[in-house]
Protein backbone atom coordinates (compact mmCIF):
# COMPACT_ATOMS: atom_id res chain seq x y z
CA UNK A 1 0.00 0.00 0.00
CA UNK A 2 2.90 2.34 0.84
CA UNK A 3 6.40 2.34 -0.57
CA UNK A 4 8.16 3.79 2.49
CA UNK A 5 11.20 2.41 4.27
CA UNK A 6 10.92 3.36 7.93
CA UNK A 7 14.59 2.83 8.72
CA UNK A 8 15.67 5.64 6.35
CA UNK A 9 13.12 8.17 7.64
CA UNK A 10 14.22 10.51 10.40
CA UNK A 11 10.82 10.58 12.13
CA UNK A 12 8.99 7.52 10.76
CA UNK A 13 5.87 7.91 12.92
CA UNK A 14 5.26 11.49 11.78
CA UNK A 15 5.74 10.58 8.13
CA UNK A 16 3.53 7.54 8.52
CA UNK A 17 0.72 9.47 10.20
CA UNK A 18 0.79 12.13 7.46
CA UNK A 19 0.75 9.53 4.67
CA UNK A 20 -1.96 7.58 6.43
CA UNK A 21 -4.08 10.73 6.90
CA UNK A 22 -3.87 11.47 3.18
CA UNK A 23 -4.96 7.95 2.33
CA UNK A 24 -7.87 7.78 4.76
CA UNK A 25 -9.17 11.26 4.01
CA UNK A 26 -10.24 9.98 0.58
CA UNK A 27 -12.51 7.41 2.19
CA UNK A 28 -13.67 9.62 5.10
CA UNK A 29 -12.10 7.25 7.65
CA UNK A 30 -9.82 7.92 10.60
CA UNK A 31 -7.11 10.53 10.06
CA UNK A 32 -5.04 9.81 13.15
CA UNK A 33 -3.15 6.77 14.37
CA UNK A 34 -4.67 4.71 17.13
CA UNK A 35 -2.80 3.95 20.30
CA UNK A 36 -2.36 0.39 19.13
CA UNK A 37 -0.61 1.45 15.93
CA UNK A 38 1.58 3.90 17.80
CA UNK A 39 2.84 1.22 20.20
CA UNK A 40 3.41 -1.26 17.38
CA UNK A 41 5.61 1.10 15.39
CA UNK A 42 7.36 2.33 18.50
CA UNK A 43 8.43 -1.19 19.45
CA UNK A 44 9.05 -2.55 15.96
CA UNK A 45 9.51 -0.12 13.08
CA UNK A 46 10.24 -2.88 10.56
CA UNK A 47 6.55 -3.70 10.21
CA UNK A 48 4.82 -2.74 7.00
CA UNK A 49 2.06 -0.11 7.39
CA UNK A 50 -0.59 -2.43 5.95
CA UNK A 51 -0.20 -4.81 8.90
CA UNK A 52 -1.29 -2.30 11.52
CA UNK A 53 -4.05 -0.36 9.76
CA UNK A 54 -6.88 0.29 12.24
CA UNK A 55 -10.04 -1.65 11.56
CA UNK A 56 -13.52 -1.31 13.03
CA UNK A 57 -13.03 -4.62 14.83
CA UNK A 58 -10.26 -3.17 16.98
CA UNK A 59 -11.74 0.30 17.32
CA UNK A 60 -15.10 -0.86 18.63
CA UNK A 61 -15.13 -1.34 22.40
CA UNK A 62 -17.61 -3.44 24.31
CA UNK A 63 -18.26 -2.09 27.78
CA UNK A 64 -21.24 -4.28 28.66
CA UNK A 65 -20.52 -7.60 30.33
CA UNK A 66 -24.06 -8.19 31.62
CA UNK A 67 -26.75 -10.48 30.27
CA UNK A 68 -28.18 -9.26 26.97
CA UNK A 69 -30.18 -10.83 24.13
CA UNK A 70 -28.27 -11.76 20.99
CA UNK A 71 -30.77 -9.95 18.81
CA UNK A 72 -34.05 -8.12 19.25
CA UNK A 73 -36.82 -7.43 16.78
CA UNK A 74 -36.97 -3.76 17.73
CA UNK A 75 -34.24 -1.48 19.01
CA UNK A 76 -36.47 0.22 21.61
CA UNK A 77 -39.59 -0.78 23.54
CA UNK A 78 -42.48 0.76 25.46
CA UNK A 79 -41.91 1.43 29.14
CA UNK A 80 -44.63 -0.98 30.26
CA UNK A 81 -45.53 -2.05 33.78
CA UNK A 82 -44.71 -5.00 36.01
CA UNK A 83 -47.50 -7.57 35.51
CA UNK A 84 -49.94 -8.15 38.37
CA UNK A 85 -51.48 -11.63 38.29
CA UNK A 86 -55.15 -11.16 39.10
CA UNK A 87 -56.26 -14.43 37.48
CA UNK A 88 -54.50 -16.73 39.95
CA UNK A 89 -51.64 -17.81 37.67
CA UNK A 90 -48.77 -19.61 39.44
CA UNK A 91 -46.47 -20.02 36.43
CA UNK A 92 -42.82 -19.88 37.47
CA UNK A 93 -43.65 -19.75 41.18
CA UNK A 94 -42.23 -23.19 42.05
CA UNK A 95 -38.81 -24.82 41.68
CA UNK A 96 -38.47 -26.72 38.41
CA UNK A 97 -34.78 -27.64 37.96
CA UNK A 98 -32.79 -27.40 41.19
CA UNK A 99 -33.29 -28.17 44.87
CA UNK A 100 -33.23 -24.64 46.30
CA UNK A 101 -34.41 -21.31 44.94
CA UNK A 102 -34.74 -17.58 45.46
CA UNK A 103 -38.25 -16.11 45.18
CA UNK A 104 -39.21 -12.43 44.96
CA UNK A 105 -41.92 -11.16 47.30
CA UNK A 106 -42.88 -8.08 45.25
CA UNK A 107 -43.20 -7.22 41.59
CA UNK A 108 -40.08 -5.50 40.30
CA UNK A 109 -38.13 -4.55 37.19
CA UNK A 110 -34.57 -5.91 37.37
CA UNK A 111 -31.71 -4.66 35.20
CA UNK A 112 -29.16 -6.87 33.51
CA UNK A 113 -26.41 -5.50 35.78
CA UNK A 114 -28.31 -6.52 38.93
CA UNK A 115 -29.02 -10.03 37.61
CA UNK A 116 -25.41 -10.44 36.49
CA UNK A 117 -24.10 -9.40 39.91
CA UNK A 118 -26.41 -11.87 41.69
CA UNK A 119 -25.59 -14.68 39.24
CA UNK A 120 -21.83 -14.08 39.62
CA UNK A 121 -22.02 -14.20 43.42
CA UNK A 122 -23.90 -17.50 43.37
CA UNK A 123 -21.44 -19.09 40.94
CA UNK A 124 -18.48 -17.89 42.99
CA UNK A 125 -19.96 -19.34 46.18
CA UNK A 126 -20.87 -22.81 44.87
CA UNK A 127 -18.02 -23.37 42.41
CA UNK A 128 -16.11 -25.39 45.03
CA UNK A 129 -18.86 -28.03 44.99
CA UNK A 130 -18.36 -30.40 42.09
CA UNK A 131 -21.44 -30.87 39.93
CA UNK A 132 -23.34 -27.89 41.32
CA UNK A 133 -25.41 -25.80 38.90
CA UNK A 134 -27.23 -22.47 38.75
CA UNK A 135 -30.41 -21.80 36.78
CA UNK A 136 -31.72 -18.31 36.08
CA UNK A 137 -35.48 -18.38 35.49
CA UNK A 138 -35.75 -14.84 34.11
CA UNK A 139 -33.80 -13.01 31.40
CA UNK A 140 -33.37 -9.27 30.67
CA UNK A 141 -34.64 -8.81 27.11
CA UNK A 142 -36.50 -5.47 27.34
CA UNK A 143 -34.45 -2.44 26.18
CA UNK A 144 -34.66 0.54 28.55
CA UNK A 145 -33.95 4.06 27.29
CA UNK A 146 -33.14 7.29 29.07
CA UNK A 147 -32.60 10.98 28.35
CA UNK A 148 -29.97 13.29 29.76
CA UNK A 149 -30.55 15.62 32.70
CA UNK A 150 -32.37 18.90 32.04
CA UNK A 151 -33.49 17.75 28.60
CA UNK A 152 -36.58 19.41 27.14
CA UNK A 153 -39.71 17.44 26.44
CA UNK A 154 -40.24 15.79 23.08
CA UNK A 155 -37.79 15.26 20.21
CA UNK A 156 -38.17 11.50 20.22
CA UNK A 157 -37.42 8.67 22.57
CA UNK A 158 -34.17 8.62 24.53
CA UNK A 159 -31.11 6.56 23.71
CA UNK A 160 -30.63 2.94 24.78
CA UNK A 161 -29.33 2.54 28.33
CA UNK A 162 -29.59 -1.11 29.45
CA UNK A 163 -31.67 -4.29 29.25
CA UNK A 164 -34.16 -5.25 31.95
CA UNK A 165 -36.92 -7.75 32.74
CA UNK A 166 -40.26 -7.42 34.51
CA UNK A 167 -40.68 -9.95 37.31
CA UNK A 168 -44.13 -10.51 38.85
CA UNK A 169 -44.63 -11.24 42.54
CA UNK A 170 -43.71 -14.72 43.89
CA UNK A 171 -41.65 -15.69 40.84
CA UNK A 172 -38.49 -17.79 41.19
CA UNK A 173 -35.36 -15.90 40.11
CA UNK A 174 -32.52 -18.37 40.69
CA UNK A 175 -32.30 -22.09 41.39
CA UNK A 176 -29.38 -24.12 42.76
CA UNK A 177 -28.93 -27.88 42.57
CA UNK A 178 -26.69 -30.79 41.68
CA UNK A 179 -23.58 -32.10 43.37
CA UNK A 180 -25.46 -32.96 46.59
CA UNK A 181 -25.18 -29.34 47.65
CA UNK A 182 -25.99 -28.74 51.30
CA UNK A 183 -28.85 -26.51 52.36
CA UNK A 184 -26.57 -24.22 54.39
CA UNK A 185 -24.29 -23.51 51.42
CA UNK A 186 -27.21 -22.88 49.07
CA UNK A 187 -28.90 -20.61 51.60
CA UNK A 188 -25.75 -18.54 52.05
CA UNK A 189 -25.20 -18.24 48.28
CA UNK A 190 -28.77 -17.09 47.69
CA UNK A 191 -28.54 -14.68 50.65
CA UNK A 192 -25.52 -13.03 49.04
CA UNK A 193 -27.43 -12.83 45.76
CA UNK A 194 -30.44 -11.22 47.45
CA UNK A 195 -28.17 -8.48 48.83
CA UNK A 196 -27.49 -7.45 45.21
CA UNK A 197 -31.19 -7.17 44.34
CA UNK A 198 -33.48 -4.18 45.09
CA UNK A 199 -36.42 -6.33 46.21
CA UNK A 200 -37.48 -8.51 49.14
CA UNK A 201 -36.78 -12.21 48.55
CA UNK A 202 -37.21 -15.52 50.34
CA UNK A 203 -35.29 -18.78 50.36
CA UNK A 204 -37.20 -21.76 48.94
CA UNK A 205 -36.53 -25.43 49.73
CA UNK A 206 -38.12 -27.83 47.25
CA UNK A 207 -38.50 -30.74 49.70
CA UNK A 208 -39.95 -28.51 52.41
CA UNK A 209 -42.48 -27.04 49.98
CA UNK A 210 -43.55 -30.49 48.79
CA UNK A 211 -44.12 -31.61 52.40
CA UNK A 212 -46.15 -28.48 53.09
CA UNK A 213 -48.28 -29.06 49.98
CA UNK A 214 -48.94 -32.67 50.99
CA UNK A 215 -50.00 -31.58 54.47
CA UNK A 216 -52.36 -28.98 53.02
CA UNK A 217 -53.85 -31.58 50.66
CA UNK A 218 -54.46 -33.93 53.58
CA UNK A 219 -56.21 -31.16 55.51
CA UNK A 220 -58.42 -30.39 52.52
CA UNK A 221 -59.27 -34.09 52.09
CA UNK A 222 -60.19 -34.38 55.77
CA UNK A 223 -62.47 -31.34 55.50
CA UNK A 224 -64.18 -32.83 52.44
CA UNK A 225 -64.73 -36.15 54.27
CA UNK A 226 -66.18 -34.45 57.35
CA UNK A 227 -68.49 -32.34 55.18
CA UNK A 228 -69.71 -35.50 53.42
CA UNK A 229 -70.44 -37.22 56.73
CA UNK A 230 -72.36 -34.19 58.03
CA UNK A 231 -74.32 -33.96 54.77
CA UNK A 232 -75.28 -37.67 54.93
CA UNK A 233 -76.46 -37.39 58.54
Automatic annotation (TrEMBL):
Lipoprotein keyword on record: no
Coiled-coil ranges per UniProt: 203-230
Record's keyword terms, sorted: Coiled coil, Ribonucleoprotein, Ribosomal protein
A GO cellular component entry from the record: mitochondrial large ribosomal subunit
GO biological process: mitochondrial translation
Membrane-crossing segments per the record: none
Molecular function GO labels: rRNA binding; structural constituent of ribosome
One Pfam assignment: Ribosomal_L16
Annotated family: Belongs to the universal ribosomal protein uL16 family.
Protein name: Uncharacterized protein
Organism of this sequence: Rhizophagus irregularis (strain DAOM 197198w)
Amino acid sequence: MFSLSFKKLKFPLIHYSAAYAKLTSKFSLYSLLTKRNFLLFKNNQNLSPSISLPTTFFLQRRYRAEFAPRRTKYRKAHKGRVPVRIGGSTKGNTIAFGSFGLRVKDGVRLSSAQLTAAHTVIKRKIKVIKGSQVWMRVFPDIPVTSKGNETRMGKGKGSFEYYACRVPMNKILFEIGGGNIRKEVAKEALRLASDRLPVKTEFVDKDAELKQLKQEQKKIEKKIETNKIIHIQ
